Amino acid sequence: MGIQALNISKRFGSFVALDDVSIDVRSGQLTALLGPSGGGKSTLLRVIAGLDQADSGTVRIEDQDATSLPPQRRDVGFVFQHYAAFKHLSVYRNVAFGLEVRKRPKAETRRRVQELLELVHLDQFADRLPAQLSGGQRQRMALARALAAEPKVLLLDEPFGALDAKVRKELRDWLRRLHDEVHVTTIFVTHDQEEALEVADELVVINHGRVEQVGSPNDLYDRPANEFVMEFLGPVT
Ligand code: ADP
Ligand code: MG
To answer: CATH topology for 1-75+151-237?
Structure first.
């Protein structure tokens, strides 16, 4: 169960972006992919989502071989770094979109969207346009939209990247609480050590297309696998 990416390699031309990477995320776990910019985090997430095809390796999602499935059949919800909302649609319609395209019954869609807007504390803002929300509110809308079709897996690529420190901290706490409530298996990409340490159950440190270390926040601090991990994590604050 959960998500397994096994022996994933991916080249862009002659450049090796992922070099035989394997990760194993248990069901219900919140895992952070952590590492410096250019290390291959987004590429790995895109391979898991089915937005990119690996050159070799397999992807399993909840006991199903997903390697050759298109994204819409992988049962994943995702939020990417520069999230594009439908600007001309209300918050309600943005969240409902994924259910409408799946032709879910109207009453079910209404109930589900209402539930989700309450979950992300946007029920008072259902009729607004995305432009009338703050940055943090827009990111919460993106998460509600990703959760709409009840995916088994949630993939978040630096979802709080563009926000200021205070809002990031609020959203980070909120994501942790949300995860504790809904228990969706989640992979969260970040280059921010503090964010990863505070939010995740388990960290996968990725650099130059390779996994440097996997472990709990405590494991990584107590027993860094090598100098790179030690230096990247920096002193405990
Ligand atoms: P991260 O998310 O860890 O910052 P990425 O997965 O985005 O890293 O990128 C890893 C490396 O692969 C980078 O050097 C990047 O320039 C390269 N890369 C990513 N996508 C492409 C692409 N579509 N074409 C060419 N090179 C790419
Ligand atoms: Mg990235």
So the answer is: Rossmann fold (3.40.50)
Band the pLDDT of 141: cuts 50, 70, 90: very high
Cα(42) to centroid(ligand 1), Å: 7
Is the confidence metric ipTM above 0.95 for this complex? Answer: yes
Domain regions of the chain by residue span: 1-75+151-237, 84-150
124 alpha carbon – ligand 2 mean position (Å): 32
Which residue pairs from 105-111 have beta carbons closer than 8 angstroms and sit at least 24 positions apart in sequence? none
Q: Whose CA is nearest to atom 21 of ligand 1?
A: 12
- Average pLDDT over the chain, rounded to an integer: 91
Distance from C-alpha of 161 to C-alpha of 79, rounded to nearest angstrom:
11
Pocket lined around ligand 1, Cβ cut-off 6 Å: 12, 15, 17, 35, 37-43
pTM as predicted: 0.91
